[in-house]
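Sequence in, structure out.
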Amino acid sequence: MGGLPEGMKGSDMTDRNLVVGLAHCRVSDSADALATAAAARIVMLARESLAHSGRFVLALAGGNTPRQCYAQLRHANLDWLQVHVYFGDERCLPWGHPDRNDVMARAAWLDHVPIPAAHIHSIPAEQGPRQAAQAYAEVIRSALPLDLAVLGVGEDGHTASLFPGDPALASSALVVPVFHAPKPPEERVTLSLGTLNGARHKLFLASGVGKRAILERLGEHPELPAAQVREAQWFVDRAAWPG
């Protein structure tokens, strides 16, 4: 399947360990460079999984920083027929709503590569939190453990739709309904902390000066949802870098 596509070498990227307790963090000079570096890492993990098991199973995050990364993946040279896509969380909005994570991922990446439609598993969040969580648990059960979970972090330390203090954070279910998210929409569906921690690889993306404060706090507040994702690799840009 060849080497990394042009523009995905990450040559401007430096490796550093964050003093705030993040296990492994790569710092890029800009959000664009972060997206390129993260895309290169995803391609590498995909090729390793395809070579080992014949398939690559990942869960996607929403947000602008992942969107930039996904756009880079349009150009990757992969065996797309063996890629299986799930989602880390979804807002309870009508099918096709522009604020849904699956709509963003399709527009940025999935509609531009030959992944079979049957391999793209959207969360049926339009059914409501409880029913959608139950249905998605049955869909994703046979795919676990994930090869990769792509994650973001909110300024309050949430990841996926696991928010600080929410009962969903303590659930042992595979997929969890969320009813009172502190940002709209209040109703969501999310993979549980256990499902995310069970992934073979976890990759956080964080960019912009607005994320700097939470990156500083994560090491001091292990109760925050993002801090509870173990053995994750972080990709950040210099604006978010607490150093």
